[in-house]
């Protein structure tokens, strides 16, 4: 993880609870390098502890700097997170492509980071001029200001998606497995046999459509072996067969 | 926006400040329909106001329910956000594909929502059984529990990416425009002419490479018209020409 780390730098953060919330969400996404530039209420700050929710290691290892340039001095590449598009000649990225850029640079062994401004004012132009590009989360233009920790959450989430591989969809079946096509075929034969017997499928013309629709319901349900057994038990029960069969 | 809305339902939320933070980030992403099931400290809750940071309309319109089924009754499709993968037969999605699913359903005019559990326990199995699928944010396995409002932030952010169109990269040039290739060519000719004159490019063999490297620097910088004028002024200044030329 150390070789593919993202450094988070908060410039003049005002509220200890936000610093704590930032530490928590950083560790949620496997990040540990948090730096502060001139935190308003000094450091350490007891207000940060509860919102960090156990990310104490991050708080203990926070580095504090008196100026932004010192805080980012060892980094090879730094972007600025901002809600405003300052009147500067800069690239403005949404989080996804920005973190793609930074992650690919990190994968080449270089150190990367994102700079965040204070809750009240964001980053000033001087701090932004130290950064290569801007990251702007696309928000509601009538209510655009994100909570500081929320902004860090979105950035670190996008980072995490870039550097970890996680299947985007899993179908969890618990202790059983998905039914085989044979299991499912036997269920259909069982159900349709009973429905023929009880007269539910008596309309010859409608029969093929009704059967197709019924089969589609159970296909969509992606049944497990256990569930097929349960459904067959239900059919037997509904038709009045003894339960222990 | 109303036709492409995502409903957020919090089941047994404990802390008013989290409800307020949820309201803020919902409005950040253009969402307004927040519902609570059995909020621990009742509703309204004064603790929610400051963290909502002005999203008062959301708080005023919160609907409160005594059970989850009532809270989701009018929705056509509902997913559950959870950190745990309950032992159930369910699809588990990361946020992106989950919100793609929900957004495409919403675009067909149907009502969709995401259910979130309490800060302490998350959702119970009964609530989860009311949902079609699970959404699990891929987090650090050693520190996986997200703050409730952070989880909502990630989900609403992904929703917003699905339903709004936003260019993922803009190169902002302020009040000026990007330099034309002619502007840039004239800058190169100007600079290289002066460097020939001062002897910097005197090594015939190295000259082509040096020129290519120099040109590449200025290509990468993506100069604006104004910046080209500034650089040409700098060249004139450095060689001792009067500034008003």
3D structure, described in words:
Two copies of one chain form a homodimer. Chain A has 245 residues and is α/β, with parallel strands linked by helices. Chain A has two domains: 2-162, SPOUT methyltransferase, trefoil knot domain (Alpha/beta knot); 181-238, Helicase, Ruva Protein, domain 3. The first copy, chain A, has ten helices and eight strands. A seven-stranded parallel beta sheet of chain A has the order 3-2-1-6-4-7-5. Chain A is elongated and about 85 Å long. At the A-B interface, helix 1, strand 5, helix 7 and strand 8 of A face helix 1, strand 5, helix 7 and strand 8 of B. Strand 8 (169-172) of chain A pairs antiparallel with strand 5 (90-93) of chain B, so a sheet runs across the interface.
The CATH superfamily title of the largest domain in chain A: SPOUT methyltransferase, trefoil knot domain
Structural class of chain A: alpha/beta
User: Helix segment count of chain A?
Assistant: 10
Spans of at least 5 consecutive residues with low confidence of chain A: none
Q: Could you tell me the number of beta strands of chain A?
A: 8
The major β-sheet of chain A equals: 7 strands, parallel
Mean pLDDT of chain A: 91
What's the architecture of the largest domain in chain A in CATH terms? 3-Layer(aba) Sandwich
Sequence of secondary-structure elements of chain A: EHEHHEHEEHEHEHEHHH
Q: Reading side by side through the largest sheet of chain A, how are the strands ordered?
A: 3-2-1-6-4-7-5
Strand content of chain A: 5-15%
């Amino acid at each position: 993880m150390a070789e593919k780390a993202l450094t988070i730098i908060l410039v003049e953060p005002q509220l200890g609870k936000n610093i704590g919330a930032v530490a928590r969400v950083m560790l949620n996404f496997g990040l540990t390098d948090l730096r502060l530039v001139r935190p308003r209420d000094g450091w350490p700050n007891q207000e940060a502890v509860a919102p960090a929710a156990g990310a104490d290691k991050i708080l203990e290892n926070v580095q504090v700097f008196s100026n932004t340039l010192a805080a980012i001095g060892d980094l090879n590449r730094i972007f600025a997170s901002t809600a405003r598009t300052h009147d500067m000649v800069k690239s403005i990225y949404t989080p996804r492509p920005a973190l793609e850029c930074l992650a690919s640079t990190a994968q080449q062994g270089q150190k990367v980071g994102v700079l965040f401004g204070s809750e009240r004012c964001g980053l000033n132009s001087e701090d932004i001029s130290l950064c290569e590009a801007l990251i702007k989360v696309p928000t509601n233009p009538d209510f655009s200001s994100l909570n500081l920790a929320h902004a860090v959450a979105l950035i670190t989430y996008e980072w995490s998606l870039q550097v970890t591989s996680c299947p985007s969809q899993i179908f969890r079946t618990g202790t059983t497995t998905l039914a085989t096509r044979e299991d499912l075929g036997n269920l259909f034969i069982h159900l349709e046999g009973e429905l023929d017997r009880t007269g539910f499928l008596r309309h010859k013309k409608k029969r093929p459509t009704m059967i197709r629709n019924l089969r589609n319901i159970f296909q969509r349900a992606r049944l497990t072996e256990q569930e097929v057994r349960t459904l067959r038990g239900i059919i037997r029960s509904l038709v009045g067969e003894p339960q222990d069969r």
